[in-house]
Amino acid sequence: MCFDNCSPNEHSFIFLFPACAALPYLLHGQILHSHFLKSGFGLDCYALTALMDMYAKLRMLPLARQVFDEMRVRNVPTWNALIAGYSRCGDMKEASELFKSMPEKNVVSWTSMISGYSQNGQFSRALEMFLRMEKETAIKPNRVTIASVLPACANLGALEVGERIEAYARENGLFEDLYVSTCVLEMYTRCGKIEVAKRVFDEIGQRRNLCSWNSMIMGFALHGKCIEALEYYDQMLHEGTAPDDVTFVGVLLACTHGGLVVIGRELFESMAEKYHINPKLEHFGCMVDLLGRAGALQEAYDLIKTMHMKPDAVVWGALLGACSFHNNVELAEKAAQHLFQLEPWNAGNYVILSNIYASAGRWDGVAKLRKSMKGGQITKTAGYSLIEEGGYMHKFLVEDKSHPRFEEIYEILDQVSAVMKLHEKSIDSESDVNELLIMGQF
């Protein structure tokens, strides 16, 4: 166009900047940015938004923020683009500040925040943001909103909210979108509703893709249904869908829970040999766990030593857990030493090794570990539970009194404990009577 002496206008740059972001070509984008300013288009809101979005997608947030701050006029897409950029880079604090400052918000604004929290593992905040949108605005979620909040429901076990979202998706024709239906499927598998997940999977039918298969295989594996996981894997191959690295995490996990060492080895070896997929840390972790649970601790340790990448805490943690089950002090010490370097703050590793020492009568080792924990000021993290009630997630620590209705909660808990004790006594009395009756027969 330039060679033909046809000069671009501001609308041309609205298409050129996104092209640079998609390729991605930062240098070309900066050259176009310079040409854009020299052409006198520096006041066009739409072109400037496209420029800012380009920098945000190329993870050049300081440059994107500079364009944003210098803009005289900003529309809603301008704010949304920068929020999405911060979310994409994991800076949810800055994204939240921008969101609060927005003079006007639309469904994309809310969805950007929900998606950002969800993709950055802040599932509670993602669900809170969705519930806020429902409560405080008249904005209706779209398919992207639904596909962004359902993973949060899945990870939190917020089944009640997830079912309500599914009903909304069906009523508004959003369930037909494959991303939405797959997220519904994933939610049910994560929440342990396997039979419901199977019905959703069958309903997706010929539209299902690799993600749909992976969700079902992983769901079966996580809930101990190893035979079903392997059957679905075979069915997937029979229907012509090739596995990926996520598929193999699912089937190896199924083998681990089912104790299927031989099949697990075959699947692990087939990754590279048959499907040209290089095993990742997750696959080695599954194999170490599988071998360790079966008592093949030395083979598990030898596998770790052959890894082409540095083993992480999950891999060494799997070996330490297996050593704890089989009381292998020597390999437990090796695994623990790596874990102490990788995550020195994790008291759980010290506790597991201490228990292994105690089981072996190595009280000197127990004392040494306690001294190390005290010297390093390492303390055990308090456990907590999440309970869904009335569409909200409630978090409880040990002896927690932060909940506004804690007095009622403890009153009910005392009542439940009293009933359990009475039930236990009645069972003991019944056992005594049965024992006397049996003895009276002889």
What does this structure look like?
There is one protein chain. By secondary structure, the protein is mostly helical. Helices cover 71% and strands 3% of the residues. The chain has 23 helices and two strands. The chain has helices at residues 10-22, 26-38, 45-57, 61-70, 76-88, 92-101, 107-119, 123-136, 143-156, 159-171, 178-190, 194-204, 210-222, 226-238, 245-258, 261-275, 281-293, 297-305, 313-326, 329-342, 347-359, 363-375, 406-440; strands at residues 384-389, 392-397. The protein has a two-stranded antiparallel ribbon. β1 (384-389) and β2 form a beta hairpin. α10 packs antiparallel against α11 (178-190) and α19 (313-326) runs antiparallel to α20. The longest helix is centred in the last third of the chain and has 35 residues, at 406-440. It is globular and about 85 Å long. It starts with 9 loop residues before the first helix and ends with a helix. Mean pLDDT is 89; it is low at 433-442.
In short:
This protein is mainly alpha-helical and 442 residues long.
Which descriptors apply to this entry?
23 helices; disordered C terminus; 442 residues
Explain the layout of strands and helices.
Blueprint: H1 10-22, H2 26-38, H3 45-57, H4 61-70, H5 76-88, H6 92-101, H7 107-119, H8 123-136, H9 143-156, H10 159-171, H11 178-190, H12 194-204, H13 210-222, H14 226-238, H15 245-258, H16 261-275, H17 281-293, H18 297-305, H19 313-326, H20 329-342, H21 347-359, H22 363-375, E1 384-389, E2 392-397, H23 406-440
Antiparallel strand pairs: 1-2
Helix pairs in contact: 1-2, 1-3, 3-4, 3-5, 4-5, 5-6, 5-7, 6-7, 7-8, 7-9, 8-9, 9-10, 9-11, 10-11, 11-12, 11-13, 12-13, 13-14, 13-15, 14-15, 15-16, 15-17, 16-17, 17-18, 17-19, 18-19, 19-20, 19-21, 20-21, 21-22
